[in-house]
């Protein structure tokens, strides 16, 4: 008996798997510009990463809104999902690292000035997570809809801002409202608020769990960044990036960026 005995085999007038997922467009979106074997790997790795980032932005914005609406259990689910998405993004570098410097040089010139630094979705993730260095809007100023999207994110609280607003509502912190476009400035009051929570988890359990979800998120973000640095150094050494960045040295500086600084520094006190 055929293993497909119960499966529907005719989809002439029905929506099929390929229709639902628009696979004709997804699988037809890879257009290598050279004859190099490894260019397809390079394209697919970055396209799939952009798809995961699209989901991460969706989840981060929804989690921020859930925190602001005092729906913390919903936010926990979304933040846990973003951490798992970052695991996928981190693992993707492992696939790209199978490409050697010799193989990359076969098509690198075909990339022109294109660079991951120009990814507006990565920028959106950074802004939502608190790294609000507005100078990085530069590569997006020539695309009005993208610029408007990023400006809208900058005009609203980020994930960490939302958490601090929640601490304020719990009476643990002064009102943290500020110009959201500006980077968060580390505060002794915020360290103290998190210390209060960590010293009495049972009395502040939802906020204790929120703290740990945020730490988990940044933990995975750091791994993603580190794997990126290692991959770039393995493939191009210390050469400049295609988009004009300093390459590995720039990426290493990004490793020092702390998204939720007080959550890390409070650990020294406990």
Enter the CATH topology name.
Methane Monooxygenase Hydroxylase, Chain G, domain 1
The count of strands amounts to 0
Number of domains: 1
Cα separation of the termini: 65 Å
Structure in words:
- By secondary structure, the protein is an all-alpha fold.
- It contains twelve helices and no strands.
- It has a single domain (38-269), classed as Methane Monooxygenase Hydroxylase, Chain G, domain 1 (Up-down Bundle), CATH 1.20.58.480.
- It is 58% helix and 0% strand.
- Helix 3 runs antiparallel to helix 4 (72-96) and helix 8 (159-169) runs antiparallel to helix 10.
- The longest helix has 32 residues, at 205-236.
- The chain is globular, with a radius of gyration of 22 Å.
- The termini are far apart.
- The relative contact order is 0.12.
Task: Please provide a brief summary of the model.
By secondary structure, the chain is mainly α.
């Amino acid at each position: 008996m055929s293993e497909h005995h119960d499966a529907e085999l005719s989809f002439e007038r029905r929506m099929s798997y390929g229709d639902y997922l628009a696979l004709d467009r997804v699988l037809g979106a890879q257009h290598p510009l050279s004859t190099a074997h490894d260019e397809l790997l390079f394209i697919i790795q970055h396209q799939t990463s952009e798809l995961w980032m699209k989901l991460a932005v969706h989840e981060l914005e929804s989690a921020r809104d859930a925190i602001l609406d005092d729906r913390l259990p919903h936010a926990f689910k979304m933040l846990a999902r973003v951490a798992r998405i970052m695991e996928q993004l981190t693992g993707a570098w492992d696939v790209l690292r199978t490409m050697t410097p010799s193989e990359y040089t076969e098509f690198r010139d075909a990339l022109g000035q294109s660079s991951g630094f120009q990814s507006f979705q990565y920028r959106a993730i950074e802004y939502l997570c608190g790294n609000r260095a507005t100078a990085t809007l530069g590569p997006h100023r020539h695309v009005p809809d993208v610029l408007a999207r990023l400006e809208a994110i900058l005009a609203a609280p980020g994930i960490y801002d939302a958490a601090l607003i929640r601490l304020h509502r719990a009476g643990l912190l002064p009102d943290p409202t500020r110009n959201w476009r500006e980077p968060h400035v580390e505060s002794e009051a915020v360290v103290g608020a998190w210390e209060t929570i960590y010293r009495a988890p049972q009395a502040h359990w939802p906020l204790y769990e929120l703290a740990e979800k945020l730490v988990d998120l940044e933990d995975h973000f750091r791994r993603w960044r580190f794997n990126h640095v290692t991959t770039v150094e393995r493939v191009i050494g210390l050469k400049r990036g295609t988009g004009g960045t300093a390459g590995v040295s720039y990426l290493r500086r990004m490793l020092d960026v702390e998204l939720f600084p007080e959550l890390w520094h409070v650990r020294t006190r406990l």
